[in-house]
Structure formats: C-alpha cells, structure tokens
Amino acid sequence: xxxxxxxxxxxxxxxxxxxxxxxxxxxxxxxxxxxxxxxxxxxxxxxxxxxxxxxxxxxxxxxxxxxxxxxxxxxxxxxxxxxxxxxxxxxxxxxxxxxxxxxxxxxxxxxxxxxxxxxxxxxxxxxxxxxxxxxxxxxxxxxxxxxxxxxxxxxxxxxxxxxxxxxxxxxxxxxxxxxxxxxxxxxxxxxxxxxxxxxxxxxxxxxxxxxxxxxxxxxxxxxxxxxxxxxxxxxxxxxxxxxxxxxxxxxxxxxxxxxxxxxxxxxxxxxxxxxxxxxxxxxxxxxxxxxxxxxxxxxx
Length: 300
Prior knowledge:
Largest sheet: 8 strands, parallel, barrel
Number of strands: 10
Order of helices and strands: EHEHEHEHEEEHEHEHEH
Distance between the termini: 10 Å
Shape: globular
Strand content: 15-25%
C-alpha cells in the first residue's frame, strides 16, 4: 500500500485570525488528512489559546472539500459515548463522510483532572476504554442502543440516521499494550502509535524502529486472536514523539529517509505536526510545505 501523508493542526488559532486559512492550506498542499488534538488543554500550551476539537473540525469541514478530518485522539477522560456519538454523526454528516475518529485511553495530563476527578491509573484507563469503544461502536451503527455498563451506560439512545460513512466512520485506535491492541483488532479500521515513550529521552532512532516493529508484531498477534486479517488495517504513526523528534522535518531528504524506514515497517500513514513557532513543533514552513508536496513522489 502506498504511504499517505497527513498533518496535525493544533487548535490554537482563532478561526478568523488564521484558523480557517491553515486548514484550507492543508487541503491545498494535498495532505491525505488533517487531525487535531482532542484535549481541554495540553502541555506547554495550557496557558494560551486552545479551542475545542469537535467545533474546530466542524468549521474545518465547512471550509474544505476533500481533506479527511479527525481527532488524535479522543479519550474517555472527559467524553461519554452517548453524547460523543451524537456529535460524531453530526460532524460526519456536515463533512460529507470525511471523519476519522482517533481514540485512545488518554493519560494523566490536564484532561484527567479538569472535571474534578482524581486521575485514573493505567489499569483504570484501560478498563474504561475497553467499555467505551464497543459501546461507541454500537451507538454509531445501531438506531437505538440500551446498554447497562460499569462505567458508561446507554438507555434507548437514538442515533438516526447514523453516520454518512457506512456502517460508521472509521476508528483509529491508539494502543501499545495487549488490551488496547485487542480493541484495535476488534473495532479499529486503523492502528495508531507514537512509538515507545520510554525511548523519547534517551533512545536512538534505531531502537525506536525496533520497538515499533515489535508493536506491529503484537498487532498481528491480536488480529490473529480475533480472526482479523491484519492487512485490512491501516497503520498510522504520529511523528514527533520518537527519538528523531523534529529532525525529519529539517529537510526533504531527512523526511524521505525517515518515512521510507517506517514504510518498511508497514506504516501506511505518517502524520506530521503543522509548524508551531517556539514549541517542540517548530519547523521551517517552506521546508514543511516542500515535504508535503514532494516527499511521497520520492517514496514511490
């Protein structure tokens, strides 16, 4: 499968002050998809502008025509499947069937406590995701759902007429552990990873690729366990969190080398962050746009 190139646009710009223009430029550059983070606030951006993901994607859907759009990633930290399903069905309709839902367990960032709760342990996050994803799957594919759950319940929840995409919009499930990979195998149209976080500070690019290869093997085992053909699934790498950091965006050649090595590992889509000055995502805009328009042709 040919590699696809996508971008991630942080929701930091007022729509009338550059927000609309960035999403439209992403489409002009030929990106396969443009995603945004589904957080209430995030890391070093916490004390600056930060807008909601789903309203941003709704606006982007009306400002573009071909670009796929999505979250990267939505989590149970502050979402409930019943209300999320209604919003996603609406967003998929407005976009004309261009939405992908990136979904994962979330972490211990600001979202984890913004509603006044104590942060969940990794096991508690996994428990919730294991209930969240199957219920959301049902809500997006069935007209009416009743499901008493431990963490998330639905009672005669109606979602007519359903998604524009059939049987529902695709899920890209972020996972590295066995439970998450089984969820991806059962419910995902794509598997999403950022690499091995333990290698970010002191690992090497070679160690990172070895870890990603192992993750891919675990995905294959999970698919075999549930009787799924792993070749049916896309494999998405969100760039920026491996030991390479932002180095692949320093030149076209550097990115082609990075992308080619990960394509050899089976990845079908690489997502690069739209440049943000004075941040970990700082990059030269001209080089970024050259990568967007020329890199895939060199990869064949």
